[in-house]
Design a protein that fits this description.
By secondary structure, this protein is α/β, with parallel strands linked by helices. The protein folds into three domains: 349 residues, Rossmann fold; 66 residues, no CATH class; 235 residues, Rossmann fold. It is 24% helix and 28% strand. It contains 17 helices and 33 strands. It has a seven-stranded mixed beta sheet, sandwiched between helices. Strands 19-18-20-22-29-28-25 form a seven-stranded mixed beta sheet. It has a four-stranded antiparallel beta sheet with strand order 11-3-13-14. The relative contact order is 0.12.
Length: 699
């Protein structure tokens, strides 16, 4: 072989191997600082002494507010390198294994030169599962040995505080359903990610404030999340952006007490562009700066404080040059616990990085209560002395409400419920389409809660349902009752209620319209109708008496406020008698006060061992508070709260809370208990659905 050929070969070998030039001297950066002022106005003065012993290089100083203590413990970065795992990014298995080796090598080299003190660990997937270490995890693969079991384990690991670095087609390969489980997202959440067709590799080249502040340069965004998706998941775009496509190159998604940092493209071998050297540099900066831990010890408010607090200074140091930089930062506007100062010299020549942290002496510790945490099962309740302590953790972002009842027994929603939906019926006061829309919404809500819905599609099925007595809840919304189950000489429906059933009535006057053929339209003077006598036959006495006129005052009751029951019609509601302690009528809805009467838009009337929930009028239009969609939501909350599974008079107390929630954040409330109770029953909901229902023993 000629000398020229040898020279070319040696050059190629040198080009292929990573070249790291520099020292790991940790004395190159020193800090002095002082804090002056008060909690209303405070300044931190910072003096940085820097010495560059490497080649001439551009440095960046980034300051930002954070909640994670960077010196609490040594941070692990675990790299999975496993011959049994593969990646769909690469058609040749060996190429995927080379990327994993490359990440490991470049992380070790970068860490050694910086002297950052990170603990870089190589593990097989089996070793990772067996040892369950904490810290950061890098997986360059997307095909796991036992997907269901492995992803459940990975999800629990992340939710407990781990940070996963994924890349490329990871989410595409595990699929939409498994991705949502891993990310802790509801199945109903829409993401653009699953509709995007990846027809070619895309790159982001425009710096953002965050990418510049932390030197993040990985450019590929082919398999990244859109800005809409990140907002839906309370995520943050960390990498470069592009005006050509809305897809993130590097993104953070919170999951419980941890999170996922996703690199939006497959690792390739183009040096300092989209190779593992570029990715390793970005990973080290994210970890060493404390940014990754700060993002998991946070919530949307603290995230906003972090990003808005970023200050960036650039400067160039020649070889062996020393300099002193003086900075001032305003701590008053820093709403987080620490001020982080991250100094690094920029790629591709840079291999220095140092982190300093200053405690904000004016930070109110109690504001850390509402940060994202590992799942607590949705809610918890306990008693300390006479104080009831409640913790709520909705799994959705948005306006949430919580309704809490105290009782001597646990209160749960039903396992199953019946609805009378005769498609041939001719309903009163609402057309068939409106009735069917109501039931369609209601059935969907019940299925989401895990409640079985038995659809009774004709009179025969209704009669069998009532006579069997297997279900204790029945929803009726067509106003006309078949005479085969109720009438002057027919007490099947009444006996079912008295034996422990609960009827939910939506429509005109209860018991007023009766017919042996509900498919034929009838009027008020139909020969089978009971008119005003019907409610007296059902209840054993007249409770409604007459149609109400306009009220003088309308206000929420305690339960309607707690459950968000805004249903307003009250024309055919029972008249309340607050002076009678033995009253059978309990207000669930709004209170409407007229001349000499008070009616609730939704009432519970006890009858024997059961009862009737009476909605005081017909369904309304789409823009009304009595619309089919809204009313289906109200009745779902009543059912799932469990309050109609028991005597309402036995509820000791109730509380309602409204707050803006985000995924995995925990919200805490405290109440003074007027009397001892055995159980706290908690319902969490929003305007669309019931998010969770729980009952806790207070013993």
């Amino acid at each position: 072989m000629s000398r020229a050929v040898y020279a070319v070969l040696i050059s190629l070998i040198l080009i292929q191997f990573p070249m790291y030039l520099g020292t790991n001297d940790k004395s190159w950066a020193e800090i002095e600082y002082s804090v002056s002022g008060t909690s209303q106005s405070s300044i931190v003065s910072i003096s940085l002494n820097l010495e560059n012993e490497d080649f001439k290089s551009k440095y960046t100083i980034t300051t930002f507010s954070a909640n994670a203590n960077s010196s609490e413990d040594q941070q692990n970065i675990i790299v999975i390198r496993d011959d049994d795992l593969t990646s769909s990014c690469y058609s040749i298995s060996g190429y995927g294994q080379a990327r994993a080796w490359g990440m490991l090598d470049h992380l070790n080299s970068e860490d050694n030169l910086r002297g950052s003190g990170l603990n870089i660990i190589r593990m097989s997937w089996k070793e990772f599962r067996n040892t369950n270490p904490s810290g950061h995890l890098i997986i360059t693969y997307d095909q796991l040995p036992d997907p269901d079991s492995d992803l459940r384990f990975l999800s629990q690991w992340i939710q407990s505080g781990g940070i996963l670095f994924s890349q490329g087609r990871f989410f595409n390969e595990i699929g939409e359903s498994s991705s949502k489980k891993l990310l802790g997202l509801p199945d109903s959440l829409y993401l653009q990610f699953w509709e995007r067709k990846n027809e070619g590799i895309t790159y982001n080249s425009e710096k953002t404030e965050i990418s510049e502040a932390f030197g993040l340069g990985f450019p590929q965004s082919t398999y990244g999340f859109s800005s809409y998706d990140l907002e839906s998941m309370d995520g943050t775009n960390l990498g470069k952006t592009s005006t050509q496509q809305d897809s993130s190159a590097i993104s953070f998604i919170p999951v419980g007490g941890g999170g996922i940092i996703h690199f939006g493209g497959c690792l390739w071998a183009r040096k300092w562009f989209d190779d593992e050297k570029r990715a390793a540099y970005d990973v080290i900066n994210l970890v060493q700066s404390g940014l990754s831990k700060s993002l998991i010890s946070s919530n949307s408010r603290f995230d906003e404080s972090l990003t808005s607090s970023i200050d960036i200074d650039h400067f160039i140091l020649s070889r062996n040059q020393k300099t002193t930089l003086v900075l001032e930062r305003n701590l008053t506007s820093n709403h987080n616990k620490f001020l982080n100062i991250f100094i690094f010299n920029e790629a591709p020549t840079g291999h220095r990085g140092e982190i300093f942290q200053i405690v904000n002496p004016f930070f109110p510790e109690e504001t850390l209560n509402e940060i994202r945490r590992p799942p607590i099962g949705g809610a918890s309740a306990s008693v300390l002395g006479n104080k009831l302590q409640i913790s709520i953790q909705p799994q959705k972002t948005g306006n949430a409400q919580t309704f809490v009842t105290l009782s001597d027994y646990p209160m749960y929603g039903p396992d199953s419920i019946g609805i009378f939906l005769d498609t041939h019926s001719s309903p009163i006061c609402n057309d068939r389409n409106t009735i069917e829309e109501f039931f369609q919404n209601f059935i969907e809500r019940m299925h989401q809660s895990g409640t079985t819905v038995n659809i009774l599609s004709d009179v025969g099925e209704l009669l069998e349902f009532l006579q069997d007595g297997l279900d204790e809840h029945l929803v009726f919304a067509t106003t006309i009752i078949p005479s085969q189950v109720f009438g002057r000489n027919n007490s099947v429906l009444s006996e079912w209620i008295s034996s422990g059933g609960t009827l939910y009535w939506i429509g005109d006057i209860i018991g007023g319209y009766v017919s042996s053929d509900t498919s034929v339209p009838i009027s008020w003077d139909h020969h089978e109708n009971l008119q005003w006598e019907g409610e007296e036959i059902l209840f054993g006495e007249s409770l409604i008496s007459y149609s109400a006129t306009d009220s003088i005052i309308s206000e929420h009751s305690e339960i309607s406020n707690g459950l968000g029951l805004d249903f307003s019609p009250f024309r055919v509601s029972p008249i309340l008698n607050f002076s009678n302690e033995e009253s059978r009528i309990f207000p669930l809805g709004k209170l409407n006060i007229g001349e000499g009467w008070t009616r609730s838009s939704i009432s519970y009337v006890s009858l024997g061992s059961g009862g009737v929930v009476v909605f005081g009028g017909c369904l309304g239009g789409q823009n009304q508070d009595s619309s089919p969609t809204s009313t289906s939501s109200y009745i779902s909350r009543i059912l799932l709260s469990g309050i109609t599974n028991s005597e309402l008079s036995e509820i000791h107390d109730s509380y309602g809370y409204s707050f803006y929630s985000e995924r995995f954040a925990v919200y805490e409330f405290q109440e003074i208990m007027a009397q001892e109770s055995g159980y706290a029953n908690i319902l969490i909901f929003d305007h669309e659905e019931v998010i969770g229902q729980y009952s806790f023993s207070l013993d």
